[in-house]
């Protein structure tokens, strides 16, 4: 399916080490009448390993989209593992993080997968954020669990052993979704219709496959909720945002959705201010839910204060929540903060909980995968709207889905709107092709 605290004992109370105990066998008393055969099968537990647990993080850090566009999940995951290691690791074993920049290309992604999976023998991938996840089939074939990755493409709805940060209900047998179709709900559009009374919406996208596919889903969802929809597509390399802004103004759009990166959003907002386009809300996606809004949108003060972000995770600025405070405390040294960092932190937590479940049998790819594949919803201690990774033979027609919403306000930052576990709607699930 497409996207629209801290676990007990982790970080809040520390990570106690499980100390190996020696089995002390007393000598038999003189004259023992027990047969010697009773002592032939005594075993001594193997000493607990203290070797590092190696995980990999693939990131399109130097992609054509920009140097910092995809690094948030990586930085959040690394921050979690740094704090985890400072508190003893997982049952006394530190987590060793191996990172790889795939450059945003399929060739580079395959090289990263080969290095991490085949050469470094990582037990799992965590917080994958790849513009072109060409190596996904190779990860799946190797049985390596990929935990909490960002579903930029369709990989997390296609292959087994891959678990996106928002989950999936698809069969994942080698083809995307169900028969090549993915599904998404209309909860975001229902929310804005219900709360803001919006009726006309514009959808802006690039002429790039992932962006265009997401925009098609947004358009269908808006129409299903009764909106009048204005669609605008700009060239990925040479976008004309001014023309798009002028058109949405002329057509009276009071709500704007996009499938753009942060740079594109900033350009669109500036163009909207330049042409005098006033909207109730400029709604962006989780990738643009960052602390860099004042700098990114410095030339668009009106549009900047109309920014709303929606997603499936708790607002990284909501420090009234203990799990968010833990994330912010551990990342206070980072120059910026973002929702993707928080989701990378949650992905690392997910792996940690999976690895801890393997204490008795040993932390292996197969054991971690069993935890991930057990079908139970996961919340990362309340940081995520419950994530399900099931395999339904047919897609659901409707689903009760919740949404996390925040609005930017100068001087306050991202301000949560309502509660993500209460802003829930029973909405249709609409198909689209990736």
- Give the CATH topology of the largest domain: Rossmann fold
Q: Which second-level CATH architecture of the largest domain applies?
A: 3-Layer(aba) Sandwich
Computed CA radius of gyration, to the nearest angstrom: 24 Å
What is the distance, rounded to the nearest whole angstrom, between the alpha carbons of the first and last residues?
12 Å
User: What structural category characterises the helix and strand content?
Assistant: alpha/beta
Task: Work out the helix count.
Answer: 12
Keywords: Signal
Protein name: Branched-chain amino acid ABC transporter substrate-binding protein
Domain Leucine-binding protein: 52-409
Family: Belongs to the leucine-binding protein family.
């Amino acid at each position: 399916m497409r996207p629209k605290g801290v676990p007990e004992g982790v970080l809040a109370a520390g990570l106690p080490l499980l100390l190996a105990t020696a089995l002390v066998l007393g000598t038999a008393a003189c004259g023992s009448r027990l047969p010697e055969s009773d002592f032939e099968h005594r075993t001594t537990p193997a000493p607990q390993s203290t070797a590092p647990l190696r995980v990999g993080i693939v990131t399109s850090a130097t992609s054509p989209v920009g140097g910092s566009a995809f690094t948030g999940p990586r930085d959040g995951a690394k921050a979690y593992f740094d704090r985890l290691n400072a508190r003893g690791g997982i049952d006394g074993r530190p987590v060793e993080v191996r990172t790889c920049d795939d450059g945003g290309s399929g060739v580079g992604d395959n090289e990263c997968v080969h290095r991490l999976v085949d050469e470094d023998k990582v037990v799992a991938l965590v917080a994958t954020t790849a513009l072109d996840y060409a190596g996904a089939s190779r990860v799946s074939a190797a049985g390596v669990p990929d935990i909490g990755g960002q579903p930029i493409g369709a990989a997390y709805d296609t292959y087994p052993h891959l678990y996106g940060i928002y989950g999936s209900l698809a069969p994942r047998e080698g083809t995307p979704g169900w028969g090549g179709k993915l599904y998404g709900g209309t909860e975001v559009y229902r929310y804005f219709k219900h709360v803001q009374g919006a009726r006309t919406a514009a959808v802006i996208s690039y002429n790039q496959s992932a962006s265009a596919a997401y925009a098609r889903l947004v358009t269908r969802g808006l129409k299903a909720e009764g909106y009048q929809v204005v669609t605008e597509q700009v060239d990925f390399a040479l976008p004309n945002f001014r023309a798009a802004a002028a058109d949405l103004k002329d057509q009276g759009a009071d709500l704007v959705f996009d499938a753009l990166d942060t740079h594109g959003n900033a350009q669109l907002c500036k163009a909207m201010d330049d042409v005098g386009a006033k909207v109730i809300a400029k709604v962006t996606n989780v990738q643009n839910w960052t602390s860099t809004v004042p700098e990114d949108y410095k030339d668009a003060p009106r549009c900047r204060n109309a920014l709303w972000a929606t997603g499936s995770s708790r607002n990284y600025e909501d420090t009234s929540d203990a799990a968010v405070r833990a994330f912010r405390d551990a990342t206070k040294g980072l120059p910026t903060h973002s929702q993707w960092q928080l989701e990378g932190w949650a992905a690392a937590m997910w792996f940690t909980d999976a690895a801890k479940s393997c204490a008795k049998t040993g932390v292996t790819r197969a054991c971690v995968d069993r935890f991930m594949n057990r079908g139970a919803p996961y919340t990362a201690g309340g940081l995520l709207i419950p994530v399900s990774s099931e395999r339904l033979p047919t897609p659901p027609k409707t689903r009760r889905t919740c949404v996390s919403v925040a609005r930017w306000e100068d001087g306050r930052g991202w301000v949560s709107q309502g509660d993500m576990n209460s802003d829930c709607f029973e909405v249709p699930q609409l198909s689209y092709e990736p």
